Amino acid sequence: MTTPAMTTENAARGALDDFLCFGVYSTGLAFNRLYKPLLDRYGLTYPQYLVMVALARRDDQTVGELGGQLFLESNTLTPLIKRLEAAGFVTRQRDTADERVVRVRLTQRGQSVAQDVSTCVPAELMEAVGISIEEIAALNQSLVTLREKLQRAA
Amino acid sequence: MTTPAMTTENAARGALDDFLCFGVYSTGLAFNRLYKPLLDRYGLTYPQYLVMVALARRDDQTVGELGGQLFLESNTLTPLIKRLEAAGFVTRQRDTADERVVRVRLTQRGQSVAQDVSTCVPAELMEAVGISIEEIAALNQSLVTLREKLQRAA
DNA sequence: TGCGATTAAATCGCGTGCGATCTATATGTA
DNA sequence: TACATATAGATCGCACGCGATTTAATCGCA
Predict the structure, then answer these.
(1) Which of A94, A107, B26, B127 has its CA 20 to 30 A from that of A85?
(2) Which PANTHER family does its entry note (chains A, B) (predicted)?
């Protein structure tokens, strides 16, 4: 199946496809590229979108709680959440009972956007991709299991 | 299965686990965290490691060819490869026949490191993770198929 | 041959991830 | 109460990814 075109730039396309880590890495890039134009409509990046979804499901979370869900820490989340605050999607407020804790809440506009992106965006994408609910669930389950094994190994 | 500890920070751990995109994203983070200490021994980042593996398989590639395999472009690869050059792992040289093209070649030391990381690192990791060759191959095939669908949709 | 269009790579700015460190608050134990 | 320890966030520097633009070389076609 070697075509003339494959002798030049495409010669080695798929050359790294025997590495599972690369499958995960490159699929992540592809997901990002697919999401980007949709999220641009809301002015959100992909990790910002994840924070909005997490807050849509449970509002008024601490930075640490959000980090627990996204597997990120304050060094990444603090600036990200500050950008969400600057965009008017969330508020950041020190907990009065424990001043070490910062509580993140959706603004009214944030709630509206979070609702939108939680439902419309994934549905719109998965339909465009052409993959069944069952395939998604099975693959996702394998990935979550793998992720847990990787975490245990680390 | 709700434990007392789950009422606080861990309450919503796994809250985003119904999103396939998040499964891919978070598994990518976990892979990176697992690889990091091993690659630190060579002074390589994960994408740098991918370039070294690609060059181990076929040396003397152009920036565009490497990008075709890693799904990246020169805006990402040029600075990355310059760092590999600064570290003494590769050389960068304009093609004499077509001066637009930059050819990347492993140095002697680069060849040695590339050999090492191509074989030892993945084997060492997968053994630590505890996942069979068959599981790896099946999951990876699903991911490559998904990636291709995502690319077509983009 | 000449000249616009195309191509390969480089550059720039911004938003992540993350190791390392710092600050401020809370906790525990004498 | 006092002081060491622990915890939650914040800050900083560096290396990606990537959209947008720029530069330089080649190609195509009259």
Answers:
(1) B26
(2) ORGANIC HYDROPEROXIDE RESISTANCE TRANSCRIPTIONAL REGULATOR, TRANSCRIPTIONAL REGULATOR, MARR FAMILY
Distance B144 CA to C19 C1' (A): 32
Give one word for B43, left, alpha or beta, with left for phi > 0 and alpha for psi -120 to 50.
Answer: left
Q: Is the CB of B10 under 7 A from strand D?
A: no
- Answer whether residue A21 is part of any domain: no
Q: Which residue positions in chain A have pLDDT lower than 50? A: 1-11
- Indicate yes or no: CB of A140 within 8 angstroms of CB of B20: yes
How many domains is chain A partitioned into structurally?
Answer: 1
Q: Which of B15, B23, B122 sits opposite A144 (nearest CB)?
A: B23
Contact A83, A48 (CB under 8 A): yes
E strand spans, A20-147: 61-62, 90-94, 102-106
> Is there a domain that residue A142 lies in?
yes
How far: B32 CA to C16 C1' (Å)? 14
The answer to whether residue A79 is domain-embedded is: yes
Length of chain B, in residues: 154
Residue of A nearest to B151 (CA): A30
pLDDT tens-place string over residues B57-115: 999 999 999 999 999 999 999 999 999 999 999 999 999 999 999 999 999 999 999 99
- The CATH number given to whatever domain includes residue B47 is 1.10.10.10
Per the structure, the complete domain to which residue B106 belongs is given by 38-127
Q: How far apart are CA A58 and CA B67, in angstroms?
A: 40
